[in-house]
Amino acid sequence: MNTTRPHGDPVIDFILGRDGARLSFAAAVGITFVSCLVLAAAAASGLLGGARAFGGFVVIVVIVSWWSSPVSALALAVVALLFANGFAVDTGGTLAWHGEADLLRLLCLLALAVTASILGRLHLDRARRQGPPAAADNRSHDWWQVADR
Fold it and tell me: Which of 36, 77, 86, 100 has the fewest Cβ atoms within 10 Å of its own Cβ atom?
C-alpha cells in the first residue's frame, strides 16, 4: 500500500487534501469551527446583531467551502447552522429548533456551501487545464521599459 502524499510534510498533508490543492475534511471543519467560535463570541457579547451574525456565518461557510470538497461543504454548513442557532438566533448558546425558519437557514447554508465548493472545483480544474501562463515573447515586461520599444 502506497501511503506517500503529494508533499511529504505531515503538517501540509494534514491541511491539504489528496490532490494537494483542496483543504482536507479535518482542516476545513477546524477552520470553520474556530471562525464560527470567534464570530459567536462577537455575537454573544452584543457586537453583532442576529442578522449580521448570520451573514457572517454565511460568509465563513462560502469562503471555506470554496477550498473544500462538496462533502466537507455539507459538514461546514451544519457546523455553521449550530453556531448560528446557538448565538445569532438564540442567546447564550442554547440550541433549539425553530421550525421552518431553521429549515430555511439550513437549506440556504447547504445550497451556498455546495455551490461554492463546486465553483471552486471548476475554477481549480480550469486553472489546471490552462497551465501556467506563457510569455508571448522573450522581451521584458517591466512597465518602465514599455516606452523604450
Answer: 100
Which residue's entry shows cell 465548493?
117
Q: How far is CA 30 from the centre of its chain?
A: 11
Q: Which has the closest alpha carbon to 60: 43, 44, 73, 46?
A: 73
Q: Which helix (H) or strand (E) holds 4?
A: none
Nearest to 112 by CA among 149, 63, 79, 145: 63
**Integer CA distances (angstroms), 5 to 10, 17, 132, in order:** 9, 9, 23
Decide if 48 contacts 3 (C-beta within 8 A). Answer: no
